[in-house]
Amino acid sequence: MNIQRVLLPTTLLAISLAMALPCPAEAGLPAMVDDQTLPSLAPMLERATPAVVNIATENRMAARRNPLLEDPFFRHFFNIPEQPRERKAQSVGSGVVVDAKRGYVITNHHVVEGADTITVTLRDGRKLNAKVIGSDSQSDIAVIQIPSGNLTALPLADTDRLRVGDFVVAVGNPFGLGQTVTSGIVSALGRTGLGIQGYEDFIQTDASINPGNSGGALVNLRGELVGINTAIIAPGGGNVGIGFAIPANMVARLMNQIVAHGSVRRGQLGVSVQDLTPDLARAFNIPASQGAVIAQVSPRSAAARAGLREGDVVLNINGRPVRDGGALRNAIGLLEVGEAVRLDILRDGKALTLEAKVGEYAPVRAEGETIHPRLAGATLEEIGLNSPLAGKVQGVLIAELESRSPAARAGLRKGDVILAVNQQRVASPADLQPLAAGGDALLINLLRGREELVLALR
What is the mean pLDDT of the chain? Predict the structure, then answer.
């Protein structure tokens, strides 16, 4: 039974009755009650929403084909037409204009990753082609550029002043419906350890965020950008009131580096850190309740030159409190190579201040094809001291992976950690070479997220 046909006459009747009944001259809520203007977000949104754009991307990838279809005789015998050799994949997301004069738009790295074409739709309906200026997969931030001219940009808020309970509004393109506005509050600050990105310092909000909101704006009641919406926790696939945004202060520093260099040139101190737990605080006999403990100092590193030692507790960096090890790693990761940093520490219960100059992070890397043909297309990297996996996992990280490469077809993914090859543990790319030599097949134990898998590469 066609439900629409059953309901249509009733719907028309209801509309007819509504049109026949007398109605007041003005419908809806009054503008004022007891001489007081009703509060509304509309004036702020009228200024802010033109800066939020919809992003549509398209990329082409090789179509999976049955080997029989590659045989011209087989196709001719069964009268099978030629099959397409590639297919198109499309996706939608959101972005925020942050520099109207230069046409810079901030969005998520995962929104534009691998895109062959990027189309930006403005609030007024204009469709503009965009190019990627640069992106950073570790923080999930990308900068794209559209032709400047009659653009509206959002000013950035100082998110160091953001508080739990502040009202915020999320603007984006959920499910590709078009620009949509939802409201809520800041539910929490400084969320880390979620395993969503390499560098995490999220604003948590209960403003509804759904697929397609990625790269959109989280704004305060002054119409300032406080965050870039980037992730949700949604067991059922939709909004459950737990969304995450990258703070505007973090976005600003990353954007400056991407515009200047095309990527983020992360520095490092050369330390591995861990959280200061109550048990460690008692063991060190210090009163601090938060901070980061220096677990390891790399020889000849910036930290070693500054005088940092294992067991030091970092309380502040450049005058800002350090909550835990993740906060320290994030703060260092946002500093440019060569930038000075001041560390307030506790050593044996005594307060000290040290100064260091951030060094350049240069991880040991190897290209997969130099190790084994089945690994071609993968870039392998050691887990450095400033990695979120440092001290937790021993293995080799797949830092980059070319689509349609032998490594990708074998089932490997970017972000996988190779734990063992042919049942032998590995800790660096150099460990892989002797283990992979002399045989066609590879048996790989790897960590993907929180799950351990075994792949046989033949």
Answer: 80
Residue 203: φ, ψ to 5°: -90, 125
Cα-to-chain-centroid distance, residue 292: 24
Nearest to 138 by CA among 421, 331, 427, 415: 415
Q: Which two tokens stand for residue 319?
A: 């005058």
pLDDT at position 329, please? 81
Q: Which two tokens stand for residue 68?
A: 């029989």
The string of pLDDT tens digits covering residues 231-260 is: 887 666 666 778 999 999 999 989 998 998
Structural domains of the chain, ranges and CATH numbers in brackets: 46-145 (2.40.10.10), 159-261 (2.40.10.10), 268-360 (2.30.42.10), 365-457 (2.30.42.10)
Catalytic residues: 110, 140, 214
C-beta separation of 330 from 136 below 8 A: no
Kindly report the pTM of this predicted structure. 0.67
Q: What is the per-residue pLDDT for 138?
A: 81
> Which residues have a Cβ under 8 Å from the Cβ of 71 and sit 6 or more positions away?
none
Cα 30 off chain centre by: 43
